Amino acid sequence: MADFVDLLFADQDLDELLVHVELAPLSPLFVARSRLWEGRLAEAKELASAVTDDVLAPLVVAHAEQRAGDVAGAAKTLLALDVPTVDTRMRLWAWRALRDLGVAPPPETARELLGVVIQVPMRTGLDALAAYADGSARYASHAGGVVVHEPGGRIDTAVAEVLYAAEHLTARPTAVRNRAPIPRERIRFTALSRLGLHAMEVGAETFEDAQHPLGKLFFVASRLLVALTTSRPQG
After folding, report:
1. Given the DSSP bridges, would you call strands 146-149 and 186-193 parallel, antiparallel or unpaired?
2. Are residues 68 and 42 in the same domain?
3. Are both 89 and 48 inside the same structural domain?
4. CA-CA-CA-CA torsion sign (167, 103, 66, 71)
5. How far lies 176's CA from each of 32, 118, 212, 221, in Å?
6. Over the range 73-87, which residues count as b (16 or more CB within 10 Å of their CB) and which as e?
7. Residues 132, 222 within the same domain
8. Which domain holds residue 38?
9. 199 falls within a domain
10. Quick one: which of 64, 100, 202, 215 is 20 to 30 A from 28 by CA?
């Protein structure tokens, strides 16, 4: 569960990401990752380049290029991922890697909202809801269950409503993710952009004002949560 919630933010560097993701044992990408860790970078790149059915493959290719000293090649591979048809979290991980390489996003798209994570502390744990620009959404319940929605279907509309209500958050400065526990009666909102994370934490009293921007965001997020938990089986 901790890994599931951590990966909602898509802010890991490539080393950390490749440690946490689960790959089918002995699959071509699993072997490519092993070669990467062994320092057999050319083999890792060749194996990952041949994988066409896993969105993680270009990230493995880019990491092999980076570690081999081909910064320009790594940047080219990563920039090719920044298109709307690519899984949004892959785009965010690509931009984390690009920033690590010293590549800045274009000013006109730097603060474009690509996702938002909402964390609500409960009596026995933490609820976390994430919505992404590709129409996908994920929910981790304090009780231990998870729901994953892939793009397609009526839930995409609810995802879009959440993103629209969260757009203003990217005007905030970026910061490293706050991993400290969230106090009871407070809610943490984290917007995800090419620049990184834009976080804001507020008290529950904020939502008494229906016109407050975060009140509107919380309302549409609640509707998304209902849609997710009533139309998809929990894991």
Report:
1. unpaired
2. yes
3. yes
4. positive
5. 30, 16, 26, 24
6. bbbebbeebbeeeeb
7. yes
8. 2-100
9. yes
10. 100
Mark whether 152 and 222 lie in a shared domain: yes
Residue 194 burial (C-beta neighbours within 10 Å; 0-12, 13-18, 19+): buried
> In 3D, which of 120, 127, 130, 121 has the Cα closest to residue 142?
127
Residue 185 within a domain: yes
Residues 182 and 74 in one domain: no
- Number of domains the chain is built from: 2
Per-residue pLDDT of the chain (235 residues; tens, 9 = 90+): 578 999 999 999 999 999 999 999 999 999 999 999 999 999 999 999 999 999 999 999 999 999 999 999 999 999 999 999 999 999 999 999 999 999 999 999 999 999 999 999 998 889 999 999 999 999 999 988 999 999 988 899 999 999 999 999 999 999 999 888 898 889 999 999 999 999 999 887 777 666 788 888 999 999 999 999 987 544 4
Write out the two tokens for 221: 């997020």
Q: Are residues 151 and 216 in the same domain?
A: yes
Residue 22 lies in a domain: yes
